[in-house]
Amino acid sequence: MNPTIDNNFKYHSPKPGQPEIYTALREKAKELALMIDELAPDCRERALALTNLEQSVMWANAGIARS
């Protein structure tokens, strides 16, 4: 079995301190999302920027959870 695949596809229960880190990341990302929403015109590019910001938070959380 590949240990990386095994690790990436299993449940990772939060370790002490991790929920607070997830919250901090989400709060900062939300600040940026609101700024993008306010300053960028309503267009495909804004939607992509917001989608990719969501992905960034999800990948950051995955990296924290998997370590």
Structure report:
There is one protein chain. Helices cover 76% and strands 0% of the residues. The protein is mostly helical and 67 residues long. It has one domain. The longest helix has 23 residues, at 44-66. It is elongated, with a radius of gyration of 15 Å. It starts with a helix and ends with a helix. The model has no long low-confidence stretch (mean pLDDT 97).
Q: Which tags fit this structure?
A:
mainly alpha, 67 residues
Q: Could you say how many structural domains there are in total? A: 1
Distance N to C terminus: 19 Å
Radius of gyration: 15 Å
Give, in order, the helices and strands. HHH
Strand content: under 5%
Can you give the helix content as a percent range? over 70%
Tally the helices: what do you get? Answer: 3
So what's the overall shape? elongated
Q: Classify the secondary structure makeup into a structural class.
A: mainly alpha
Instruction: Kindly report the average pLDDT value.
Output: 97
The largest sheet, given as strand count, sense and whether it forms a barrel, is: none
How many strand units? 0
- Residue runs with pLDDT of under 50 for 5 or more positions: none
